């Protein structure tokens, strides 16, 4: 399999998510910072190793496992942070301060967008390396370019930015806009991401704005 997919955007996204979790106010951050450091180092290290040896199936498998484990940890950490904030907003509203709540909601919203973008990029049609091969798996998302290849270069395949756009539009519109989900897992992931975004904006961010007013 010829390795042609760039990992630069993915690496930067992982670093951004870790930074956002670290910047989340300590009272709303449940996951230890060192654990995210380890996860980020493992995924980035596996990407570098696989890049240096592009023809090693073992390193590509290790990279995929490390990336999926990192994404799972990031999603879990973000969900726990959201539950912690939600608990304080609902059951301990007298202790809530506006600015820490705004910072926490912004970090959770951004982490939700970026982590799901990574997940979509990793699972669609078997992953980035499978999409770059001659025999990719069945698509999880139906991009418009698949229906009208005349509008894209020959051999076009969705890049990380395309999945980042799916993550962004799902967090803002609470559902798919450009690429429609085809598989059950893609639909369930879209639903989960929309729920997190909806709770973050409607409950937490609205509460913070209400305190300021």
Layout: helices, strands, pairs:
Layout: H1 8-23, H2 33-52, H3 57-91, H4 98-123, H5 128-132, E1 141-142, H6 144-147, H7 160-173, E2 180-181, H8 184-212
Antiparallel strand pairs: 1-2
Helix pairs in contact: 1-2, 1-4, 2-3, 3-4, 3-8, 4-7, 4-8, 7-8
Structural overview:
The protein is mainly alpha-helical and 213 residues long. It has one domain (8-212). Helix content is 70%, strand content 2%. The chain is built from eight helices and two strands. The chain has a two-stranded antiparallel ribbon. Helix 1 (8-23) packs antiparallel against helix 2.
Summarize the structure.
This protein is mainly alpha-helical.
């Amino acid at each position: 399999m010829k390795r042609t997919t760039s990992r630069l955007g993915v690496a930067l996204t992982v670093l951004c998510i870790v930074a956002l979790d670290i910047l989340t106010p300590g009272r709303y951050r449940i996951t230890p910072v060192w654990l995210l450091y380890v996860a980020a180092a493992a995924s980035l290290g596996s990407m570098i190793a696989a890049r240096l040896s592009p023809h090693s199936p073992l390193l590509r498998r290790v990279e995929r496992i490390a990336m999926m484990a990192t994404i799972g940890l990031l999603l879990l950490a973000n969900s726990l942070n959201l539950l912690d904030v939600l608990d304080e907003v609902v059951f301990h509203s007298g202790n809530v301060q506006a600015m820490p709540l705004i910072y926490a909601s912004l970090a959770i919203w951004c982490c939700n967008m970026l982590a799901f973008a990574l997940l979509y990029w990793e699972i669609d049609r078997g992953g980035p390396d499978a999409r770059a091969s001659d025999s990719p798996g069945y698509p999880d998302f139906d991009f418009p370019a698949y229906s009208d290849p005349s509008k894209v270069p020959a051999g076009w395949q969705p890049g990380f930015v395309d999945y980042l756009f799916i993550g962004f539009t799902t967090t803002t519109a609470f559902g798919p806009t450009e690429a429609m989900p085809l598989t059950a897992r893609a639909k369930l992931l879209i639903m989960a991401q929309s729920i997190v975004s909806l709770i973050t904006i409607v409950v937490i961010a609205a509460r913070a704005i209400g305190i300021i007013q």
